[in-house]
Write a structure and sequence with these properties.
Elements: H1 2-24, E1 49-52, E2 57-59, E3 67-73, H2 78-94, E4 99-105, H3 110-119, E5 126-128, H4 133-137, E6 145-149, E7 155-160, H5 166-178
Parallel strand pairs: 3-4, 4-5
Antiparallel strand pairs: 1-2, 1-5, 3-6, 6-7
Length: about 180
């Protein structure tokens, strides 16, 4: 009988500890009860603040209410070079519709970045992530990587690799705008 009591006690202890572990390691929610920030589809886009190439500051939360195309790129990246004209064209055409493009680079050489921006005639903000803090937060493993974020700050789509075509970029943005109330 004593062996049965010990087994029962062990099972109860395991169940209690297991339940406690599940409760302690549950995914947190933000103060609004929404999904926690995570760099994947269906989750809130992690917030950040960066200096831009032109010396301004940009915060992702300040772009709430707009559809955001968050593109991680590098000047030496072939697919990045190939998709930049399409990204610029779609940005120019959709900017007045509540769309913002923010391109983030981890490079340190601002003169090299500026040459790239001038060569491709880019007019959207270029975020400088020299310490790679934002890239790590978004778990970017290669360039280009692009996050399509809706007006509520939720990641609706992620495109890893490239180059993205103008049609793909346009369709992703149209989906973001269609979700708006």
């Amino acid at each position: 009988m004593q062996t049965l009591d010990k087994q029962w006690f062990r099972l109860v202890a395991i169940a209690v500890l297991g339940g406690l572990w599940i409760w302690l390691t549950r995914a947190p929610t933000d103060v609004h009860g929404g999904p926690p920030p995570a760099p994947r589809q269906g989750f809130a886009a992690p917030d950040f603040t960066l200096q831009t190439l032109d010396g301004r500051t940009v915060a992702l939360n300040a772009l709430r209410g707009k559809a955001v195309v968050l593109n991680f790129w590098a000047t030496w990246c072939g697919p990045c070079k190939a998709e930049m004209p399409a990204l610029q064209k779609v940005y120019r055409e959709t900017r007045g519709q509540g769309v913002e493009v923010l391109a983030i680079t981890v490079e340190n050489n601002t003169a090299n970045i500026q040459r790239f921006v001038n060569a491709y005639q880019l007019t959207f903000p270029i975020g400088l992530d020299a310490g790679a803090e934002v890239s790590r937060r978004y778990r970017v493993e290669g360039t280009p990587t692009t996050f399509f974020i809706d007006k509520d700050g939720i990641i609706q789509s992620v495109v890893v690799g490239g180059p993205m075509s103008e049609g793909l970029i346009r369709s992703k943005i149209e989906s973001l705008l269609a979700e708006a109330p």
